[in-house]
Design a protein that fits this description.
Elements (H helix, E strand, L loop, with lengths): L1 H57 L9 H19 L5 H22 L5 H26 L9 H8 L6 H17 L4 H10 L11 H11 L7 E6 L8 E8 L2 E8 L5 E7 L9 H14 L5 E8 L3 E9 L6 E12 L5 E5 L1 H4 L14 H4 L5 E11 L5 E13 L2 E10 L5 E7 L1
Parallel strand pairs: 7-9
Antiparallel strand pairs: 1-2, 2-3, 3-4, 4-8, 5-6, 6-7, 7-8, 9-10, 10-11, 11-12
Helix pairs in contact: 1-2, 1-4, 2-3, 3-4, 3-6, 4-6
InterPro entries: YpeB_N, YpeB_PepSY1-2
Pfam families: YPEB_N, YPEB_PepSY1-2
Protein name: Spore germination protein
Amino acid sequence: MKKLLFLFCYATVALSVFAWSTSAKNEQLTLLLNGQYTDKLSEASEQLTELESEVRKVLLYRDTSSASEPLGNVWRLSSEMRNNLSSLPLDHQFSSEWMNYLTRLGDYADLASRGAIPQEKWEKALGNAAANLGEFTDEWSVATKDMFIGGTGPDEWFARMQGDVPDKRWADLGHAVKTYAESDFPLTSSEHDEQKKKDLKHIPEKPVSREAVIREFKDLFPDYANASVHVSESAKDAPYPFYHIRFQDGVRIGYADFTEKGGHLLSLLVERPAGEGTMSEAQIRERAGRFLEDAGYADVVFEESRENTNFWHLSFVRVDPGTGAKVFADGIQVKAAKDNGEILGVNSMEYIQKENVKPQPVKPFDPAEFFTEGTKVHSTELAYTANRELVQRLCHLIIATKEVGGKRDTYRLMIDTETGEVLKNEILH
């Protein structure tokens, strides 16, 4: 009896210590996430104010050469805001509409800077955008002012997002941005086709059940087999139907989105303390490739990688089976931890918005006749990219170098295989 009593007491103490340790780690992670979200939100608010200012500056000038700097800033700020907002657990409807608006605003500024849009057209569009951004800045301030005061943290964020009644502030913002997008940047016929892909209306597969999505989630991420999982469905007026999974497993907090049609992984974001990097880029690349194959994305190839202190960010692109060409518009981004290669982030939206590419003639191409003397071609391959009409065109993807004035530049060009038009020309740094 004494031994049993001793064992019972020992087990109770051990469980108490374990529970306290787990609670402390969860609290530490919550504080870390709260700090990260606060920083991202503050940056986004500052960028929104600066974005409005830069749009107004563009309208001072008559020609694109004078407006090149503010147009470049509009493109940069819209891109930076998308990066910040993508890492915040915001209302999905608002996030989708706002990301779409920022993308269109940035693309418009880029096209205007290259003379691809008539002046009167971009003047009108950006004039509307300046007025709407002014109104939106005020609405954004009201919606975000009390987000992180009074101890609000990630748990409260997720609770608000998954409540039965949507937060009216975010619903109003989402509707406002949608109205702005429709009035500021009306779609052309080719852009209507592009929008259908963005809305995922082209997926031919049948809807899957909530239970099937949970099984798929646990098959893809066996490490989270014992995690607490909460599944919610997208709102009825969402751009496309999807399942949103929030999960917690010890010190890990994360969420994942799956399409309702076919149950495909759209995105993943996991937050956990980072350990010391021990795995090489090649090992992590191999692990990421196996993960994508298991997720049903077997027709992609590795394209490039970037690193920071604790993570590798890897990019993969789809290969068209008919031509063997890379389709850069159909990409997947993967974030992996350096300490053990764990997949902590996935973005497969571009891949699921699959392009309907078409074969086209590949006329003979002689680099010696196309380039000036002294240009050295290092690699050639086939790849698809969009032209100004947003039509995907098959191109020769060429990496070349040329020495000018004692400096050697590296160029990345995409040349239409049928017309010979240079669709892209970048100097790599």
